[in-house]
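Bug #77: duplicate submission created two jobs. Keeping one. Sequence:
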Amino acid sequence: MPLDQIRDVLHAPDAAARNQVIVTHMQRMESQLAATQSAVASLCSLLDRSSASIAVSHRLVSSTWAVAICEEVPFPVLGS
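Kept job's structure:
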């Protein structure tokens, strides 16, 4: 649980407010778990049919505008 949410739990005015913070965190964890389980199932499926060919198709998508934010991050920052 992120520190700001732990703070919310500790400073909750009542049990209902505290429980809501915990439930919200639990729902986020359940969602992440479901996504992880889906990815694992997909990988297992690929391993099970490793000898079978996988259909690949190509499609043309028209150009679209996009926005990106980039920044160079020095290597030492990544290690901290």
